[in-house]
Every structure is written in structure tokens, then in C-alpha cells.
Design a protein that fits this description.
alpha/beta, 10 strands, about 230 residues, two-stranded antiparallel ribbon, globular
Length: about 230
């Protein structure tokens, strides 16, 4: 059995009620639920939440909410691995025979069924324990600068100041959309960012963290442009 687990707690502080705040007239979490269903990858799409209103919205858009997440993994200190471990364990304790799992974030309005399918294909065919979405940095990280408390400029890697950009290795970062994994890898809390992982590379325009209101406004403008 393949399941999607969408973590969606109710206590978002920087953007209140972020998971169900309307994003282009639809609750944010609905985009993740719909992409998961459209992908055809999953036997179940489950939302892990501590919030009754989020649960109601999730069910409305086609997900299941078979349990309410315990308070001890619903605060600011709970990790995604804590949430995944609880959800997988709960499912197995209730008779579900799980093989692979996808952690799908609730605030990923640019996630697509196509890339979810690509992730599953790589997980099954390439011997990875995790497959996650990633994208490239738009600027060479080897030439990044930092500022001291007084505003003084220095380079993280001064030896690269005169190196041409095309001679530096391209760098990538987590796109924050989905994380396919073998059940055992989640239960053993293995590191996602390691040699036993593969990536699905996304174009940069499909990647947008949404942590503060400025991020939200930019994502809405980009979404509108893409339509």
C-alpha cells in the first residue's frame, strides 16, 4: 500500500491559519490533496492534524483524517519525522500494510501530479530510500557573502572570488514540496539529505517557500501569472 501523509497543524503563527487560508479562492491545503489524488499514486491520502477545522476542510477536498494528532507532536518543536513516525505507526496498528509513503506539505500550491509520479518511479526503480523535490540555486553558493554585526562584508569562500561562475559546481536545495520514502526509512528516522536519497528536479518557478506574508503575496502573484 502507498499512502500520502500531509502534515497540517493548526498553530501557524507567522501566517495565521496558513494551511486553510484561501489561496486564489481555495484553501491552501486543497492544492496538495488534489495533486495527490490526481497523481493516482496513492491508496490513501491522509491529513495529520490537531485541528478540527483543518480536518473538515481536508475531508471536503477528498482526504481522510482517521486520527487527530496528539498535542505532544503538534507544537513548534515537533519535527516532520515525529509526525510521519506517528502517522505510519498509527496506520500499521490499524491494519494497513504500508510499503511506501509520501510526506506532502500542505503549503505547496505548485506541486503537480506529474512530479509526484516521477518521485514514485524513482523510488521504485532506482533503489533509493527517499526521493524528494529539489531545485537549483540561482546564484553560485560558493561566492556567497556575509555581513558582520557592524555591516562589514566578507566572503564565505574567499578563494572563489575570482573563479568564473561556470567553473563552479551547481548547487541545489530542497524544494519543500514532497518526500517519498520507504516505510522503514521513515520509521528509522533516517536522514533525507544523504547518499541513499534521489531527487526530482523542479524548475525554479515552481518552488516558493511560504513562511511570511511577503512569500504568500509573491506566490499568489506567480500563480496568477502561470494561469
Amino acid at each position: 500500500m502507498k499512502i500520502a501523509i500531509i502534515p497540517a497543524r493548526g498553530g501557524s503563527k507567522r501566517i495565521p491559519r496558513k494551511n486553510i487560508k484561501l489561496f486564489h479562492s481555495k484553501p491552501m491545503i486543497a492544492y496538495s490533496i488534489e495533486a495527490a489524488i490526481q497523481s493516482g499514486c496513492f491508496d490513501k491520502v491522509i491529513v495529520s492534524t490537531d485541528d478540527k477545522e483543518i480536518a473538515e476542510v481536508a475531508v471536503k477536498y477528498g482526504a481522510e483524517v482517521p486520527f487527530i494528532r496528539p498535542n505532544d507532536i503538534s507544537d513548534d518543536h515537533a519535527t516532520t519525522m515525529d509526525v510521519m513516525h506517528h502517522a505510519i505507526t498509527w496506520c500499521e496498528n490499524h491494519g494497513l500494510k504500508i510499503e511506501s509513503v509520501c510526506c506532502l506539505y500542505a503549503t505547496a500550491p505548485f506541486v503537480t501530479a506529474e512530479f509526484l509520479q516521477q518521485g514514485l518511479t524513482r523510488l521504485e526503480k532506482e533503489g533509493c530510500e527517499f526521493v524528494f523535490s529539489a531545485t537549483s540555486f540561482p546564484f553560485p553558493i560558493q561566492r556567497a557573502i556575509k555581513l558582520s554585526a557592524s555591516g562589514e562584508v566578507s566572503m564565505f569562500y574567499p578563494e572563489n572570488e575570482q573563479v568564473r561562475s561556470q567553473d563552479l559546481d551547481e548547487a541545489y536545495h530542497d524544494a519543500g514540496q514532497f518526500y517519498w520514502g520507504k516505510k522503514e526509512a521513515f520509521l528509522e528516522r533516517k536522514s533525507v539529505f544523504s547518499s541513499h536519497s534521489c531527487v526530482v528536479l523542479l524548475p525554479r518557478y515552481l518552488v516558493q517557500d511560504i513562511d511570511i506574508q511577503e512569500d504568500w503575496d509573491f506566490a499568489e502573484a506567480l500563480f496568477q501569472l502561470m494561469q
